[in-house]
Amino acid sequence: MTLTLRPVSRAEHLAFVGSRPSVSHLQLPSWGEVKPDWRAESLGWFDGDGRLVGAGLVLLRPLPKVKRYLAYLPEGPVIDWHADGLERWLEPMLAHLKARGAFSVKMGPPVVARRWSPEAVKAAIADPAAHRLRDAEPTWQDPRAQALADRLRAMGWRQSEPDAEEGFAAGQPRYVCQVPFAGRSLEEVHGGLNQQWRRNIKKAEKAGVKVMRGGVDDLPVFYELYRETAERDRFIPRPLAYFERMWTALANEDPDRMRLYLAHHDGEVLAAATMLIVGSHVWYSYGASTARKREVQPNNAMQWRMMTDAHELGAHVYDFRGITDTLEESNHLLGLLRFKVGAGGEAAEYVGEWDFPLNRMLHKAFDLYMSRR
User: Fold this and answer.
1) What is the mean pLDDT of the segment spanning 147-171?
2) Domain that includes residue 327, residue range
3) What is the dihedral of CA 28, 33, 35, 37, to 10 degrees?
4) What is the pTM of this model?
């Protein structure tokens, strides 16, 4: 099959997304509007009959003082990753991006390589010989993922070096936690919660915690909790304008693309979170909470309301996003892994992000620049 690549319109891109069960929210045309420091372009792959058979959102980040760009396709592009002749998909993309001034291309194939059930993760945490999730025997693995990695290396692509706390590095997480919904009733999903989760949900209900949907006017309330969370957990918060821009861009594309949930108790908001919806995939995106009144368990109540709503929407998966690969008790992210897996989530490993240096000197210079920021 002969493939050609060219830029496509927003309407063409959205029509392709709508023809799929789901794609990552990072591959929507609207995501380019969330990232004002990047230039965005929608690309389309066409077969010999002129049908759009693949699409990708590419973000172009300029190198300081030089009119050259890092081209980034987060969790994309959306193509047939297991097709014979992968070169026919990727070589036209590299040629197009080189002509656009890209010195390097980074992409994240949305291909899951391995999964671990909640029971397998719990056993791995308890196993003194398992220091990382990768040390544990997976519950499921796809041999095609290894074949894909081998093909990419043969084509000159390089797998991005993992961060020490994988899942929370620059770029997109390689390890995520996902609760499967497809073919399961809400009662079955509830049965997949561990005992602590079920106990905490009941405790929140008894204490009078109420979880409500918010709107764009409630983003400042979310943001105050988010800033407190950033200070407590030692990360640099995004500005409020980022979330306002995200809400506007996604809502203009689909009024129910992004939701905000707020957990109230005695007139005070104790926790808040954003949720993103694309087709049958629902993501828990950003969460925030105060250290006050933790005993009423607002986070469990809020997440269960979000999971309930996602199930009602017909979601096939509720995605908790990034988790750490480290299983060491000394790692402060292990508690977050336990929280997400306790909701019945499976740990999933993607094939990771891959780089193709089109100009090796500039690629190294950009890596050095980013490491000094």
Assistant:
1) 77
2) 112-350
3) 140
4) 0.94
